[in-house]
Structure formats: structure tokens, C-alpha cells
Amino acid sequence: MRRVLVIMVLLVGLAGVAAFQLTQRHVTNADARVFVPSPRFYLDFSPSFRTTIADAYWLSTVQYYGEHLKSDGRFDSLAAMLDLVTELSPRFVRPYQFGAYALLDAGEGQKAYDLLQRGWRRNPDAWQLAATAGMLVYMFGKGEAKVQIAADWYRQAAAVAGSPDYVSRLAATLLQKGGERDKAITMWVQVYAEGDEYARQKAVAALDELLPARRDERIAALAALDVPMTPDRRAELSAALLRD
Questions:
Q1: Does domain 127-244 have CATH number 1.10.1760?
Q2: Domain ranges in the chain?
Q3: Which terminus of the chain is less hemmed in, N or C, by CB atoms within 10 Å?
Q4: What global pTM score does this model have?
Q5: Which CATH class is domain 1-123?
Q6: Would you place residue 6 in the very low, low, confident or very high pLDDT band (cuts 50, 70, 90)?
């Protein structure tokens, strides 16, 4: 039984290599349609090798994209190749982000957005995926709701530990632009609490516009904010927003 199992594993491994070589040959010939097996084949029969197989197909996908970007601009099999890689290695972040931009080049905006959503569900610690989704919605989305949707993506990205300051500024700016006044105020206060001097200047300017003009109402609004902040930073913010 053990020997049979070993033989099966070897055969599946060879099948993976053969499939990859076949794909490589098609890429070299600049064929827009390449052989892309179902992810289920590898998930069912070779789970221990799926990451290695995903790496091989990832290299093939990058080569396929570059080849056709420079030649005919056709990416008929790109979506299927990205699906294969991300199904076999769901925690591999790069294919989601690279794939989204590549699918945009292929004129597949919805598939690019779907890929980013899937990547974010599987990798909630990868702020880049949420930020890229926000950018995609804001730049290419349609309808009045796109600003709010983009803002929410940036807000989620900003909530990830280690995300850069500019992400929270973008979230706050889009929330303000989308008419989400209370959320924008909270986000700008967070920007002030965590940002550098430039970020704090931007936050004060935005909060000065968003908060009530009357001094007593502004004091009450600031007191009601529940954003973690050092006492010194809170005092600085109050002084900047309550100056005569």
C-alpha cells in the first residue's frame, strides 16, 4: 500500500511538471490560449506539492503576461492561470496584486476586483490588497457609491498593523468627499494620533472644516471622540482646533 501511494505521488508530481512544460511551450509560441488544468486536480491528488506547483505556474503566468504584453495584447488564459495559482497557494499575496493590474490590462476590470476581494478574504493582514481594491474602485468604478466603497477599502487597509500613514489619509479624504462626516472625523483624528507632522497638519485642516464652528459645540464633539491617543497629542489637537 505504501509503495502504491509513493508511486501515485510521483506520478502526480510528474503530471504537474509535464503540465508546466506544456504551458511553457505554448508561451514560447506566443499562443494566447494555453493549457491550464483545473486546480481541483492538484488539490485532490497532490496537496503536499501544491505550493511548489503554484510557484511553477506563477513563473509561467508572469512570462505569459510579459510575452503577450509585448506582442498581441491578448490574455485569453490569464484569469484561469491566476485562479490556478491562487487556489493552490491562497496565502501567496503577490499574484493577487500583480494579477489585478494584469487583468486591468486585459480589459477585465470586474475579474481584477473579484481577485482582490478573494485575496483580501484569505489574507486580511495584507493591507496592499485592500488599498489596491480601493484604488481600483475609485479610478474605474461607476456610480455615486464608488467614493464610499473606495473609502471603506482604504479604511480597512489602514486598520492593518504596519500600513503606511498615507493609507489612513486617503481613507479620511474619501470619507469626507463621500459625505460620511462622522466617519471622516474619526478617521482624521486617527490620522492625527498616528501620523507625522505633515499628516497632523492635513488632519487639523480637515477637522477644522468638518467640526462645528461654535466653540462649545466643537469642544463637545472633541470630547465625544473615542480614538486612542496620548494625552499630549490630544492636548495639541484641542489647542489647534480651539484657537481663536
A1: no
A2: 1-123, 127-244
A3: C
A4: 0.76
A5: mainly alpha
A6: very low
